[in-house]
Amino acid sequence: MGTSRSDADPDTRTRIVLAAGELFAQRGLDGVGVRDIVTRAGVALSAVNYHFGSKTELYTACLRYVLEEHIHVTRLFDALIQDPGDRSAADTVAALLDGARAFVSATFAAEQPEWFGRIFMRAWLELPAKQFALLRDTLAPLDDALRRLAGRHRPDLSRTQVQIMINGLYAKVHMSMLAKDVILEDLACADYDAHYLAGLALDVARGVTSTLGLPDPATIHGAGRAGGEIDAGPAPGAAGAEKRPERNGAHG
Question: Which residues contact 187 (CB under 8 A, 6 or more apart)?
Answer without folding.
Answer: 196, 244
